[in-house]
Amino acid sequence: MMFILPTLYIFCLGAFTFIQIRRLWSRNEKREAWIYGLSMTVSAAAGSLLIAGIEFPTFVLPYKIVFESIGKSILSR
């Protein structure tokens, strides 16, 4: 099951992305098609890792460290 769900997710997202890229490409919006394809590739990779239960580092951790103590002090009052 750990292999099937991410694979199914990537397949469905890939099909949808392929259709959208063909539509953009046919309207001579090649730059937009490349940007869309790149962003969907990154999103598909991140989404499949999250579905598989693999945690990866994010940029939220420094903000969490800074603002968590502020929030706890506000809530404790």
Protein model, in words:
With 77 residues, the chain is mainly alpha-helical. It has helices at residues 4-26, 30-52, 60-76. The longest helix is centred in the N-terminal third of the chain and has 23 residues, at 4-26. It is elongated and about 60 Å long. The mean pLDDT is 90.
Helix content: over 70%
Largest pleated sheet = none
Number of helices: 3
Q: What is the rounded Rg?
A: 19 Å
Looking at the structure, what is the overall shape?
elongated
- By oligomeric state, this entry counts as single chain
Unreliable spans are none
Average pLDDT taken over every residue: 90
* SS content category: mainly alpha
| β-sheet strand percentage | under 5%
**How far is it from the N-terminal to the C-terminal residue, by CA?**
46 Å
**How many strand elements?**
0
How are the secondary structure elements laid out?
Layout lengths: L3 H23 L3 H23 L7 H17 L1
Helix pairs in contact: 1-2
Please tag this protein with its features.
77 residues, 3 helices, mainly alpha, 0% strand
In short:
The protein contains three helices and no strands.
